[in-house]
Amino acid sequence: MALTEKIIVKILANQALKSAIHNNYDYVCTEISADCIEEVENEELNFVEIEIDDIIKTKMLVEKI
Q1: Does 1 fall in a domain?
Q2: Which ranges of the chain does DSSP label H, i.e. alpha helix?
Q3: Predicted local confidence at residue 63, as pLDDT
Q4: CA nearest neighbour of 50 among 64, 62, 60
Q5: Structural domains in the chain (count)
Q6: Residue 14's domain spans which residues?
Q7: What distance lies between CA 15 and its chain's CA centroid?
Q8: Which among 35, 37, 43 has a CA at the least distance from the CA of 59?
Q9: Which of 1, 32, 51, 58 has its Cβ near the most Cβ atoms within 10 Å?
Q10: How far from the centroid of its chain's Cα atoms is residue 61's Cα?
Q11: Would residue 55 count as lying in a domain?
Q12: Is the pTM of this model over 0.85?
C-alpha cells in the first residue's frame, strides 16, 4: 500500500482495548493513517493476531478503501 491510500482497521473487540481506542481514537487514527477503526465482535477471514504487550492480544484486519 502507498502511504497516501486510505485504510480501515478492523479490530476484534477486546475489553482491555475498547476504552484505550475510544479515549485516543483521533490520535491512533492519525498515527496509523487510518480513516477509521472499527471494533467488530466476530473474527473475519484474514484477521492477523497481534500482541500489544505480554497480556493484551487481539486480532485485526487492515483494508484499503
Answers
A1: no
A2: 15-23, 25-32
A3: 92
A4: 60
A5: 1
A6: 7-64
A7: 13
A8: 43
A9: 58
A10: 7
A11: yes
A12: no
pLDDT band at 44 (very low <50, low <70, confident <90, very high): confident
3-state secondary structure of 53: coil
- Residue count of the chain, please give it: 65
- What DSSP designation does 43 have? P
Residue 52 carries which DSSP code?
S
Give me the phi and psi of 2, to 5 degrees please: -80, 155
Give the strand order in the sheet containing 36-40: 36-40, 7-12, 57-64, 48-51
* Residue whose C-alpha cell is 491510500: 5
Rounded Cα gap, residues 59 and 17, in angstroms: 11
Q: How far is CA 35 from CA 21, 47, 55, 63, 65, in A?
A: 14, 18, 27, 10, 9
Please give the pLDDT value at position 26: 96
What Å distances lie between residue 59 and 3, 5, 7, 34, CA to CA?
23, 22, 16, 17
